[in-house]
Amino acid sequence: MKGRLVVILAVVVSMSIQVLGAAAAAADQQVPAMYVFGDSLLDVGNNNYLPGQNVRRANTPLNGIDYPGSRPTGRLSNGYNVADYIAKTLGFNESPPAYLSVAPRIPLSLTALTGGVSYASGDAGILDSTGGWVRTRSAASSRAPSSSSPSAATTCSQGLFVFAAAAAPDDDVAAFYGGLVANYSAAITDLYRMGARRFGIINVGLIGCVPRVRALHATGACDDGLNQLAAGFDGALRSLLPTLAARLPGLAYSLADNYNLMQVTFANPRASGYASIDTACCGGGRLGAETDCRPNSMLCADRGQFVFWDRVHACQRAGEISAAASTTAASSQRPSLFFRVPTGDLRVKQLTRP
User: Fold this and answer.
1) Residue 313 forms beta bridges with which residues?
2) Which of 29, 67, 180, 290 has its CA 20 to 30 A from that of 229?
């Protein structure tokens, strides 16, 4: 399994890629490099470097309280996030560094080839209106491997690309789904043309059940309408992938069902060790969801028993559980996160194999 590249693109994906050649992996690494793409659920600090007062950042306490050194890193979490735990599963210490943290200082190619970089950025998205696709597609075009480089082409073709995505709906649901699927298809196709062949995709979870949404309801219930929109997109995505596989020779994929994992977890939270599934561990007001996590926020006593760190983002332990379900086989205690696909019930580790 040595000599392969892993690229993680997840939750509200923004696209970019730089593959310049092969790199030697450490003995305990299953792949030589990992690339992360996504939104604030996976951001490890890119937004700290973006200008503007309205940029979502996690550069203040209490964020990072359980990260080594108890310091904020740009992760909207009490510690690590799901990208970190996927990286750990593959033999890395944590997610690769934020692209914007290393690009100004050293040639990006050196970082990219020795361990990878993270392009994940809070508030990125699939639709052009959310900015994610626009921002990273231009980067992808400028950083694509040269077709004249055999080593770059080989590395890219053996890489693993992991997606998850969501976006806010508009009034025309059919057009909303159509726009999302069209952009998703175009992104995968663009990466395929650059040489990518292996994709691990994580679908949209129960977006109507985050504390920020629950707090808008008198009873604190989930918003079934938002969850139905997520399920509708997940169905469209599930239909899209075999169509792409039939059209793009050599494309292999797996589809992780984060929606189902959240349903199972919320139906029986104590089975996963949770005492709270509706309240933010760090925040303020009703359900801890009326303010962001701030240095003076109320903090829950046992962060491992809360699904949500703040009013939108998962606690470290929830990220660990999600990553484990995405990369390992199912058991009687943990549901399979993966749909059956043409090449079998694949998981992230299986997609790293020849």
Assistant:
1) none
2) 290
